[in-house]
Amino acid sequence: MASSFPPSSSSATSPPASPASSSPSPGFPSPEGRASAPGSHSSCASRTTRTSLTLDYNGASVRTDEAHVVESIMKATEAIAGDGKGVSRTPLTLVVKKKGVPDLTMVDLPGITRVAIGDQPENICEQICSIIMEYITPEESIILNVLSATIDFPTNQSVRMSRKVDKTGERTLAVVTKVDVAPEGLLEKVTANDVNIGLGYVCVRNKIGEELYEEARNAEAQLFERHPLLSKIDKSMVSVPVLAQKLVMIQAGMISKSLPGIIKKIKDRLAATEAVGFRASSTPRPKPLPQSSGFSAWPRSRRRRFS
């Protein structure tokens, strides 16, 4: 799986995550079945059992591991965007290779910042919104809208932005985080679908602190199994593994849907190129001048010098 995002100088708390994931309004990771808009890269699962993590940015490739990936992302983000909490369009790509992981490409975007802080430019919100719109507008993109369980979904700015480019919700999937912080009424929020999320909701528990991936998944499974409120949510709508499988299926469907159009565009471009080449080859060429004594096109006065 490859995850790529335009860096922000705020750092992620869990991989792969937006550098500005601590912002009140999260961004839009966008899995794509193609290689690639700026910052999205295709990859495949490794055949080995060991996990391989690599950060690619500014022409460099840095090896890391699960225990140090957050630190590595922080350093890479600072190298690209500086330490003033700014943002950059330069992609930072995290490539994860492991046997059994889903083959996905995701673009993880900075969270929306409404008010500039520190050394951020005054138009930081406009910059981030511009980056987000660049990635979620193409119809080939799936919008993975990350929502906190603590907020009101219909009034959330990220929801409003996604609805601008996907009015029917047919390519929008919502991921609900912080479910253990605000479990009350969550079942009603994800089943009522007041904001027209066409691909549905998936509730997850992110890793906390120094938890490793497997530890976090075990804790998540226990939470949705034993919590008096969260356990009532349908199992097809909870956990990171369910989210991963759903993304794989959605991506495969999007590729099947988009492939005929992509093939047509390629054929049209090839036909246009061949037509241009045919016109160029049909242009009459000037006839060569008569040759004499091996000195074609030379004046007679010059030819006499060599006689």
UniProtKB/TrEMBL annotation:
Protein name: Dynamin-type G domain-containing protein
MF terms (GO), sorted A to Z: GTP binding; GTPase activity; microtubule binding
Subcellular location: Plastid
PANTHER family the UniProt entry points to: DYNAMIN (PTHR11566), DYNAMIN-RELATED PROTEIN 4C (PTHR11566:SF173)
Keywords for the protein's UniProt record, in alphabetical order: GTP-binding, Nucleotide-binding
SMART domains per the UniProt record, alphabetical: DYNc (SM00053)
Ranges for region Disordered: 1-49, 278-307
